[in-house]
Write a structure and sequence with these properties.
By secondary structure, the protein is of the alpha+beta class. It has 1 helix and 8 strands. A hairpin with a 5-residue loop joins strand 6 and strand 7. The termini are far apart.
């Protein structure tokens, strides 16, 4: 127990290395209303693995991180060089597959 408490105190004392990403719709730095969040129960057998942001149809969606565009049948993803992907569902892609995009 003492090691756990000491680790917690050390973590609080050190500067944070965590990074928060902006929102994929403007204004990018302000919170937006959501209608679904991570781990919301879905159809009694699974859990939601994303955040559904409320926005009118046609609202432009922006990359939250730089990377390469991959288009799937039901989503668009931005893949970072380390392999991490940010997926955007229920959108129409306006950039070509395998193009490189910057955040925002």
């Amino acid at each position: 127990m003492a090691a756990f408490v000491a680790a917690g105190v050390a973590a609080l004392a050190l500067p944070s290395f965590a990074h928060a990403y902006g929102w994929p719709i403007k204004p990018l730095e302000e919170q937006h209303a959501i209608r679904g969040a991570f781990d919301d129960p879905r159809d009694g057998r699974s859990f939601h693995f994303g955040v559904d942001i409320c926005a009118p149809d046609g609202t432009p969606v922006f990359a939250v991180a730089p990377g390469t565009v991959f288009r799937y049948s039901d989503a668009v993803a931005i893949r970072r060089p380390d392999g991490h992907e940010f997926s955007y569902w229920h959108v129409e892609a306006t950039v070509a597959e395998h193009s490189y995009v910057e955040a925002g």
